[in-house]
Amino acid sequence: MSTKIFSVIKTCCFILAGLSLTIMFSLVTAEIINRSVFDNSFLIVDEVIGYLMLVIVFLGGILAFDDGKFIRITIFYGKLKKGLAKKIVDCTFYLVFIIYNGALLYYNYISAHSDFVFGTVSGTLLAMPFWIPKSMICLGLILLEIYLICRFVDIL
């Protein structure tokens, strides 16, 4: 069951992160052409790219975590033999990470919700409502939380 959940989460993250990267590339290319040919700027590309970078970072974290390239202390962890000690370290790590990620998700949700309620927007030409990029962070954190819980349950 959890293998299927892992697969769905990874596929969603891969597609959304890839789509964000493609949009970033398209925007930068369009901005370069617009500046070079028409001597003009869209004036919003840097802001949009910053938001899309958040999407890539928070969704890409799951992909990095699954490949074993996220948070690791190889010097310590590599010396552990398979068995009870390694299982205790893994369980402790996942439990701490689940709690930390949950707290991060909670406070980010509160921030996104208050931005939505009060209509907070960026102070730029785009006037992007702040709840939109914060929602993308929440989405990434929710998917990571589900992923971590599934991995924790698999270890037990």
Write the SSE topology.
Elements: H1 2-38, H2 45-66, H3 74-77, H4 84-118, H5 131-155
Helix pairs in contact: 1-2, 1-5, 2-5, 4-5
Structure described in brief:
This protein is mostly helical. It is built from five helices and no strands. Helix 2 (45-66) packs parallel to helix 5 (131-155) and helix 4 (84-118) runs antiparallel to helix 5 (131-155).
Give structural notes.
- By secondary structure, the protein is mainly α.
- Helix content is 79%, strand content 0%.
- It has five helices and no strands.
- The longest helix has 37 residues.
- The model has no long low-confidence stretch (mean pLDDT 87).
Order of helices and strands: HHHHH
Largest sheet: none
Overall 3D geometry?
Answer: elongated
Total of helices: 5
Write down the overall mean pLDDT: 87
**Strands, count:** 0
What's the alpha carbon Rg, rounded to whole Å? 19 Å
Structural descriptors:
156 residues, mainly alpha
